[in-house]
Records
---
Amino acid sequence: MKSEERVKPALEGEVEYLPIEGLPQHDSVWGLCTGPDGNIYLADCGEITGGLSVFLLRYKPAERRLEYLLDVGPALGQPPDNGLATQSKIHYCLISGSDGLLYCATHASGPPRGDPIWRPWNCWDDPARWFPGSYLFTYNPATGELTNFGIGPVKEGTRAMALDEKRQLLYGITWPRNHLYLFHLDTRRYLDLGRIGDVNPQAIFLDREGNAWTTDDYGYFLKCDGRTHEITRLLTRCPYEPYRIGWHNVPYDVIPAPDWSCFYGTDWGYESHLWRFDPYAGPEGKIEDLGRAFGPANFKTDLYLERWQVRGLVFGMDGRLYFTMRLGWEEPEEIWLLRLDVRTGQRERVCPLIFGDHRPPAIASATPDFYGNLYFAEAGAAPSGLYIYRPEKASARPDVFSFKDIKPWG
């Protein structure tokens, strides 16, 4: 694709497609975050082709330049050709700390080199093919130093993670057994808090007091007290369609409101709804259903679990909530960048994510830079890439957002 074909006009701005051409076999960017230095950090994963290790990269907005930083598996002592299921992935477990470090946990899904597919259940007791476990580590992009804390959950990956810097805690959710765990960074102590269900949430998030939140299989909010680590199941739950029972309605993506007064999220279910959750509104909190993220309310999204899923939530410099969704009621179906004015409920199309013959199979996550540009990570394509929305009113200086606006979870 020619460079001029990678930029197209969008509502009140333009969108650029940036393929990660240096890693042609890597197929998904799940981990995506903004560092206190204003740079964008991403984890390019190898889920489909066997024998690939996840790779850390940095995008510098000031220079519009992509840098290749670290092949993670070999750095952890797990080269991708050792015959085991690979350290192929950092899922929603790439978090920037205010200290400039990246806090990371690896995840499982990539097959060993030469194998067409890998499943943890089939290989659980096979020492030649199993996944050793999720490595917890920090990486300093300024110096290139990696600090390896070793394996946390044995034989499991980590699917979602949050960082409580004040208490020096990492919260993680394992896959496939769906356990909630703590890792004490100061003492390097791993603590399994037990299984929270069968369906694996894609998000765990923190409130202002450092309490951790996720849900059970039916969308009921679970609160892990930041001081006692006691887990409480609330009566408040994520919204669901009246003809369903809410199963598999765990959170897919959750972000704080710009003032951190509440949280906006979407489900990893069949609903394709957006919701607003206020954990401070009494002992049970308060949930507000914002309805179907986009399109006709009566459009049935429950034919396929992920086909019309809402992903990549991020607030723009205009105070609107940006997200992506495949518009399944239209022909042809395309993934669009969309936005919602959370004050008025107005929904708008920003841009279809089509560049020549290239269409993203899915969008995984999103983050802003300090100039006001928004970044959306691609999943399911090799090479994978970023979609960058540049508003017309983006600042020439990195003063629109700051690190306080960046969520401390993946």
---
Amino acid sequence: MTIFPESFVVFQGQDCLIPPQDAYNMRFLDEPSLAASIKPEAVCWHFSQIPSDLLSPSSDHYAYSVFEFDDRKYGAIQIQDNDDILIKRPGLDEAIAFPVRELVVSYPSRFSRFMLIAKAHGQWASVSRFCGACGSLLVDAKENDEVRERLDDNAYAARFCPRCKRIFFPRMSPAVIVLVYRENSILLGHNVRFPRNRHSLIAGFVEIGETLEETAIREIREEAGIEVKKLHYVLSQPWPFPDSLMIGFIAEWASGEARPDRNEIDHIAWYGADDLPELPLRGSIARYLIDSFIAGGFSNG
């Protein structure tokens, strides 16, 4: 049985494609009282507005992932960056593109959470069309009579292979991000993919067989050439760019001279509150850790 929600969120690359009749609601980035009233429907398309072949369960080009938010079902679709033909089709040809990161960090937490979930499901839909074991086209597992395994009530995104009977669940890649401090300074690096002078914290993906703590120590050693102590977990954040769970730590410098690895990081230095470079966007876990340290929010600092 195919699960068919009435409302869809459509993404292309790192943008959310918003129906033109609703796009005016998104003008209020600088007006908090108005932005607070933004609801998920402001970025959703009714199923009748979506090109029919996008919704075909037998499509070999796209799929959608279903998720539940506030007791309502939504679908998420991720369109390829270069698929200009599709977005010029009637229904999507007048869409207004908004950067997902801007929608996540500029709006209240409830709407931000909706966007994070929707983007993650759009990404999942784009990589879960085929079985990784036998190559067959996957279908919805939820409410499918062939699935014998009992699924959670909210497991709408689970995918099922009718041929080899495997079930696939949405993938999330754990990654650590660490604020390293030395007295009143914090370590910030410029990643080669960052714009202009933006600097952020040391971060990296967990490798097979590693604990989170081992990953944090390894990434700091590889990217900055230093050792740390007093490593403590702070908080986590889902970050679907493309499919991460960011796990935030704070640690104290122990030894070594900071130097960039010249592979991912091309500049790294210690910064105090009065000489900070361009920082990550507000709403990101990196910015939360930085702002909290500068404000004296961690007893370690």
---
Amino acid sequence: MSNFMAFFKRGLGALIPTVLTIAVLTWAYQFVDNNIARHITSGVLELYALSGEPDEALGIDTEAALTYGDPVDQWDERTGRRLTAQYITLTATADPGIKGATTKLDREKRKAMWELVRRKWKIFNVVGFLVSFFVIYVIGYFLASFIGRTTWVLVERTLMRIPLIGTIYPNIKQVTDFFISDKKIGFAGVVAVQYPRKGIWSLGLMTGPPMGRIAQSDKRELITVFIPSSPTPVTGYTITVAKEDVIELPLTIDEALRYTISGGVVKPTHLPPTVDSPQ
């Protein structure tokens, strides 16, 4: 039984990071697809509709309209099958007494057919997804320029003045900048400091000197330390302490963050074990 539990835990340890990675990537794909790619694909299909009907090889007919269309509360009296909005559009006839009715109906039919193409042939969704990535790249390229940076600063200032948005946006921006910003946070090293009270040691990231007013009121050499919280190190507390009261640790920032995120479970392998640790 002990071997079974050991192998089971080992299997979990191997699968959970893989599954979570796939889940995050799947979420990212769905987010981009639902919020950006889907609209781009619809725009591309609108352009296709202007050029004409899809090729016959794609198999877009009334049967495809019944299979992939949007169901409505109507049924075919002969077959009893539920009709769809696209089927109704494809089988409709224009009223010759209304000027331009035929042209408008032809345009609606082409749009319906290309929408069915997107639903039947999923590869068309990839087009919108790839285009959305290119659009994001272009936006990033534009923001790297002087005009782009200036424009975005004005946009952010406007957002900051909008009630409610001005409260939420800065916090979200801090989190996203922490993960994806090219600018590296200037941590000077990893330290241990007695916080939140004497006798309790916490892991901290030394960020630099204190604010000038604090330094003037205390003759000791002071430093600023960020204390990350577990398991989300993007939040925490910033404290100012005397340099003589901290212990500098031979850890990298990544090792310190892994230790914090895991709640102390993942310890750096290059450090010697503690006295009470099993050998």
---
Amino acid sequence: MRTKTVDPNMPVGKLTKIKNFLPPPDKLIFPDEPVKVTMSLSRSSVEFFKSQAKRNRTKYQKMIRALLDLYVQQHLARR
């Protein structure tokens, strides 16, 4: 029986796989002017960021904010 070889770099439908551009948690510490928002996150995500923040002696909310900022910058750069 033959197995089909799948190229991991080929698009899936209308989507294209992009390089992992997200930094490790210890690089998510940046000063910035925050805007308050209210949102619900999964318990596992919050626990992950809290443990990483404790390890890096920072606040978990700053790390989440930095992650979102990097995501936005990456997508704005592609315009």
